[in-house]
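Re: folding output
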Amino acid sequence: MAAKESEKKMTVKRKPQPAVLKSSTIQVRAKQTERDLIDRAAEVVGKNRSEFIIESSLCEAQKVLLDQTSFQLSATAWKELNAILDAPAKRNPKLEKLMQQAAPWESSH
């Protein structure tokens, strides 16, 4: 019986540990005036410098990437765009001439 009691004592249920979030360091050099401006803005929104810089950088990064992949139009503008895209192409002699030429990377120089 003594063996079973010691086995019970060795069995310990632990609460699940929260996942440890790993972070990496980003070092940035800035002029003192730039740092002061960032600090003032961070204080206004109630964040520390790191939180403000990360949040602002992520927001700008998303804008840059979204500008590359999508754009928003009002319903009227969307209809106008579709009408233009659905309309038959107009003849363009200059474009026709250009398309007859070899691409710069295809020509032998």
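--- second protein (sequence, then structure) ---
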Amino acid sequence: MKVPANDGSPVHVPRLIPPRRRSAVGGVYAATLLFEFLVKVGGQAGARRLCEQRTILVEAKSGLLALKDAKRQGQASQYRYRNGDGNPVHFRFVGVLDLLHLGVECQPNEVWYSIKEYVRPTERRKAILPRERDLSAIRNERGVTPRKAQR
């Protein structure tokens, strides 16, 4: 089944595979995406911004393909509007915070999101987001243990 994203492009809705029938690679992944509400007042954006952490389900043959689809869905979810004071607001995709392969440990109906404040999240994305190779699903599929990010 496909549903439209904010930009009108179709987004595939993953099949909810029963936990006992899931394999070690491929299937359903949970991607935690980071978005920011960038409000410009007098043409300037404040440093502290309200941010959304959104977890989506992605069905893919591997962690790398799930990451690619999660990024596409994050980009497609961006939008702009004017707030009640007439200031432009940009809801922007910052990046992927985590990517998990959903195996037997996860119930098919689990979902989660969070709203937080960050200081300049887009400008600091390298300090906030983990390296793609350190995202759980990609690291586990390669059998590599994570190293500390070198910032």
